[in-house]
């Protein structure tokens, strides 16, 4: 669904609330030409106590951390961005939504050096259902190992959520969809499993969980961290510093993706190989149920993860 079909009308930009249609930038913006922006994607869930933003502090922390390699300074404090986000949700009367903060080098000159380009900051929020579809959450998706490799962390900081990185995600995801798959799995330069275009990956084997370590050229996903915490609290052993080979995917009992957009999405097939019995596996289902119980606040546990609007 396009933005024009949504009931949204306000964007926060550089300290002010502006009409949706007025949130414009110059065509010679540095970030547009060179991908010099950093961003976040968080979710706000509809709960009995009103809209609740999930792990906002961690998203803000990652946003500011992502600026560091690019020497970018956001001219707004965390408190200001938090207040802006809360008010944005209230003004648009959103009960649940996806939240997209972005900071980027703006308009001044177009040398690759950002020079005196100002840092621009904006936040948008809009309704966004299941990223890969409701059916995906229940029945799982078929994924393709991309022919594209993930950037090596020696080439670009893969732990910073930088706009320019996402052309790699676009190439991998579109290649998969062109071939009839819902999403891609992207291998790192070494040929081991990194992650999805916008998701981290988990494998279940013999009742234990495995997810590629941070040195495998992945984003340090907040949902990855959430699932590790939930799984450990449920008594599972989680191996989160490992390297996973492509071949291990084929023999996994279960596989699933995690992400703020994708939430917990089972994977039922990788290329031509059926994973487990080809449906959502029992461990995935337990973790997925727990995840939704937590984010929809049907439990008091983990309340520290929520900011109520
Ligand atoms: N990897 C990549 C490349 C992503 O874009 C995302 C989405 N932000 C993730 C992993 C998952 O991260 P998170 O759980 O923090 O959304």
Describe the structure.
This is Branched-chain-amino-acid aminotransferase. Its cofactor is pyridoxal 5'-phosphate. Belongs to the class-IV pyridoxal-phosphate-dependent aminotransferase family. The structure is a single chain. By secondary structure, the protein is an alpha+beta fold. It has 2 domains: 3-126, D-amino Acid Aminotransferase, Chain A, domain 1, CATH 3.30.470.10; 134-295, D-amino Acid Aminotransferase, subunit A, domain 2 (D-amino Acid Aminotransferase, Chain A, domain 2, Alpha-Beta Barrel), CATH 3.20.10.10. Helices cover 26% and strands 29% of the residues. It contains 8 helices and 17 strands. The protein has helices spanning 30-34, 56-67, 78-91, 134-139, 166-178, 222-233, 246-250, 282-295; strands at residues 10-13, 16-19, 37-39, 42-47, 50-54, 97-105, 119-126, 141-149, 183-187, 193-195, 200-205, 208-212, 238-242, 254-259, 263-270, 273-274, 306-308. The strands form 2 sheets. Strands 8, 9, 10, 11, 12, 13, 14, 15 and 16 form a 9-stranded mixed sheet that branches. A hairpin with a 2-residue loop joins strand 11 and strand 12. The longest helix is centred in the N-terminal third of the chain and has 14 residues, at 78-91. The mean pLDDT is 97. Bound molecules: 4'-deoxy-4'-aminopyridoxal-5'-phosphate. Residues 41, 195, 198-200, 219, 221-224, 258-260 line the site of 4'-deoxy-4'-aminopyridoxal-5'-phosphate (PMP).
């Amino acid at each position: 669904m396009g933005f024009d079909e949504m009931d949204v009308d306000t964007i926060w930009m550089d300290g002010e609330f502006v009409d949706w249609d007025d949130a414009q930038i110059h065509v010679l913006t540095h970030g547009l030409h060179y991908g010099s922006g950093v961003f976040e994607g968080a979710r706000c869930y509809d709960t009995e106590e009103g809209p609740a933003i999930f792990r906002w502090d961690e998203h803000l922390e990652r946003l500011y951390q992502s600026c560091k390699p690019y020497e970018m300074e956001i001219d707004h404090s965390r408190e200001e961005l938090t207040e802006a986000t809360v008010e944005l949700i209230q003004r648009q009367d959103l009960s649940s939504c996806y939240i997209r903060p972005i900071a980027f080098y703006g308009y001044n000159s177009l040398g690759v050096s950002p020079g005196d380009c100002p840092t621009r900051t904006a936040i948008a929020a809009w309704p966004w259902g299941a990223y890969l579809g409701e059916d995906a959450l229940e029945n799982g998706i078929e994924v393709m190992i991309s022919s594209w490799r993930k950037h090596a962390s020696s080439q670009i900081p893969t732990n910073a959520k930088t706009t320019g990185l996402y052309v790699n995600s676009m190439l991998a995801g579109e290649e998969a969809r062109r071939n009839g798959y819902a999403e891609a799995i992207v291998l790192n330069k070494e040929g081991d499993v990194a992650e999805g275009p916008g998701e981290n990956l988990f494998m279940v084997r013999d009742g234990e969980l495995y997810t590629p370590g941070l040195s495998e050229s992945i984003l340090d996903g907040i949902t990855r961290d959430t699932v590790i915490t939930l799984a450990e609290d449920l008594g599972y052993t989680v191996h989160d510093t490992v390297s996973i080979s492509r071949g291990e995917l084929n023999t996994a009992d279960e596989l699933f993706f995690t992400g703020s957009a994708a939430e917990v999405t089972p994977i039922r097939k990788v290329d031509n190989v059926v994973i487990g019995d080809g449906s959502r596996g029992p461990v995935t289902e337990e973790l997925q149920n727990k995840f939704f119980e937590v984010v929809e606040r049907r439990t008091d546990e983990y309340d520290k993860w929520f900011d109520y609007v």
